[in-house]
């Protein structure tokens, strides 16, 4: 059975690749016990010592020992779920990105809205904290398509 080990918050962890389970020693015993995972909104998390960590960050740390899990700077140290599924924590689905890149990959973002005053659909996209206006559209589908095409151009990771 393939096992990877890491130390997080001063605690030694074992990650069993086949089952995806994480084990930790409790107290001074030699026994390893499975760490319980709980749900926090769309994400999975667990406590290690007195701190709460998201499971995707723990798994990324286990595979990338030099990465600093304690760096809370969300602007430059986010872990992105490539396929947009926040409970798919396979290492092949995780990557270290900055905050903006993480938002590029949002699956629920739609990039368009109804403009009541003009009675048309307005499309726009965000880049580097600035809004890029994409136009007004009679059909919702056209506004959505304008946003999706702009996403291919501006939201490249």
A few lines on this structure:
The relative contact order is 0.10. With 157 residues, this protein is of the alpha+beta class.
List the helices and strands and how they pair.
Blueprint: E1 3-8, E2 11-16, E3 22-25, E4 32-34, E5 38-40, E6 43-48, E7 51-54, H1 55-63, E8 78-81, E9 94-97, H2 99-104, E10 112-115, E11 120-127, E12 130-137, H3 140-154
Antiparallel strand pairs: 1-2, 2-3, 3-4, 5-6, 6-7, 8-9, 10-11, 11-12
Report how far apart the termini are: 35 Å
Label the structural class. alpha+beta
What about the largest sheet?
4 strands, antiparallel
Roughly what percent helix?
10-25%
What does it look like?
With 157 residues, this protein is of the alpha+beta class. The chain has two domains: 3-104; 112-154, no CATH class. It has three helices and twelve strands; from the N terminus they run βββββββαββαβββα. It has helices spanning 55-63, 99-104, 140-154; strands at residues 3-8, 11-16, 22-25, 32-34, 38-40, 43-48, 51-54, 78-81, 94-97, 112-115, 120-127, 130-137. Strands 1-2-3-4 form a four-stranded antiparallel β-sheet, with helices on one face. The chain has a three-stranded antiparallel β-sheet with strand order 5-6-7.
Comma- or semicolon-separated keywords:
elongated; four-stranded antiparallel beta sheet; 3 helices; three-stranded antiparallel beta sheet; alpha+beta; 157 residues
């Amino acid at each position: 059975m393939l096992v990877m080990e890491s130390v997080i918050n001063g605690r030694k962890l074992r990650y069993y690749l086949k089952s995806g389970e994480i084990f930790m020693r409790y107290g001074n015993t030699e026994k390893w016990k499975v760490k319980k995972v709980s749900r926090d909104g769309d994400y999975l998390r667990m406590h290690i010592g007195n701190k709460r960590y998201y499971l995707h960050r723990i798994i990324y740390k286990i595979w990338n020992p030099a990465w600093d899990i304690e760096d809370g700077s969300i602007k430059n140290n986010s872990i992105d779920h490539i396929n947009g599924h926040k409970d798919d924590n396979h290492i092949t689905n995780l990557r270290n990105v900055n905050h903006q890149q993480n938002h590029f990959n949002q699956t629920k973002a739609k990039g368009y809205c109804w403009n009541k005053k003009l009675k048309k659909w307005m499309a726009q996209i965000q880049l580097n904290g600035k809004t890029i206006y994409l136009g007004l559209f009679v059909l919702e589908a056209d506004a959505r398509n304008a946003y999706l095409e702009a996403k291919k151009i501006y939201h490249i990771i």
